[in-house]
Every structure is written in C-alpha cells, then in structure tokens.
Amino acid sequence: MTTQELTHQIFKKKSFLCIGLDVDLNKMPQYLLNAEDPIFEFNKSIIDATHNLCVAYKPNTAFYEAYGLKGWKSLQKTINYLNQNYPEIFTIADAKRGDIGNTSSMYAKAFFEDLNFDSVTVAPYMGKDSVEPFLEFENKTTILLALTSNEGSSDFQTNNSQGNDLYKTVIQTSKTWKNAHNLMYVVGATKASYFLKIREIIPNSFLLVPGVGAQGGDLNEVCKHGLSKNVGLLINVSRGIIYASNDTNFSVSARIEAQKIQQEMEIILSKYLKN
Fold this sequence. Notes:
Blueprint (H helix, E strand, L loop, with lengths): L2 H11 L3 E4 L17 H13 L5 E3 L3 H4 L2 H18 L4 E8 L3 H14 L4 E4 L5 H8 L5 E7 L18 H9 L8 E5 L7 H7 L5 E3 L9 H8 L6 E5 L1 H4 L7 H25 L1
Parallel strand pairs: 1-2, 1-8, 2-3, 3-4, 4-5, 5-6, 6-7, 7-8
C-alpha cells in the first residue's frame, strides 16, 4: 500500500487511528483460552468490530514470539485475515528490526514477502546499510524509530552533547538514504513539544505515534504540532481499545472505545480541512 492510498483511507474514514494488536493471554477474556487458537480468535473479533473505524493495525511481534511457534502461526493467520478481508487496511509489523545488510535483507523478506505486511518498524542505530535493504521493496514502508515515548529515550535520543539531538541527526541523515521516500518515523505522543522541530525537518512524512491514552499522550497536542498537508499521522492505541473489557462482549467494548477516538479525529480533521 502506498502513502497516497493510506491518505485516501484517512479522509474516507475520517480517521487516522492505528490499533495495536498486542495480545496477552493473561489479559484477554478467559473463555477464549478454550479456542484452538485464542490469539487469532481475539484478533479476529477485534478486527471485525473496529475495521471501519481505523486505517491501520499494528501487531507487536514480541507478543507473538513469546508464545513460540504457536504465536508466530497466530501472527501469520492474523495478517492473512487482514489482507484477505480488509485489504484497504495498512498493516504494520512492529518488529523493531535492524542489523547488518544481509541480515536486514532477510528480515525484510520475512515481513514484506512471506507475511506480506505493508510496513515494518526498524531501529536505525547501525546506520544506512542496515536500513536500505528494507527500503528496496516497492510499495512497502519502513518505519524508523526516531523519538520514542519510553522513559529511557532521553539517554540517547535527546542527548545533544555533540551539538545536535540524536533524534534530529537520525531523521536528517535518513533523508539522504536510497529510497528514503519509503520512510515513515516513530515519534512518541508523550514528546508532543518536539513535533514542531520534527516537522521542520520532515514536513510531509508520515509519523507513527504511540503513547496516546495509557501512556499519557494527548491527541489534540500531537495534532496541533504534528499534522501535515496530507494529515501525516497514524495514532496508535493498543491497551485502551483491545482491553477495554475482558468479558464476552469485549469486541463491542473495543468498538466503543475506537469510535470515541475516531469521532475526536473526525472533529480534528474537519477543523483542519477548514483551515
């Protein structure tokens, strides 16, 4: 899926919501544990209930890898279900990969060819030869970790001991890489005050923004500083939607929470378009 197609979906659905499918067997409704594949059944119910309210889903692969081969099969079934039933949805493998070139090539094949995700998150620490293999894939997106929302992000990302914050150096440098037009960036919602600086460097790139809701990020603050001419934001919410309830009506509760956020986004977009 191209970013143009993603933008079309955003305006069509009046939403730039991404739902994180971070599945934990301890948090899902216990009756699902009797199913042949509880993780997939949980995901399928969430997807069916919320697909018209969001434009993207983001499974965090760690939540599947933790369950071994069964978890990986659940991930595969989830992405296959999305691609077959809701092909208009943008899919993100939150894998945070990144290694020397030949290894990155294999990671890229795994997520782009075998699993057929639209995008994958990548750590930039090893530099361009660890990222460019991902960028070679046409109509696939590499989402670079730029400024994250975790407590330890200040250890390196906003450390300006060399005269420039590292996150700025990462973003500026990545613009020079081959096929950089295939890049998006992760920017945490708890760093809302940084969005103006980031938009000075990449005014029109898409930003994947975790941290709204449970982590304390504010949607309106992010949009105030982060919206671009093509919207340019994917706001990820995980726990606040998928674990809104753990009873038999969990998917209905998830839909209600997703709809609340979508309605906020619709208001924001209507004001944005007027301006």
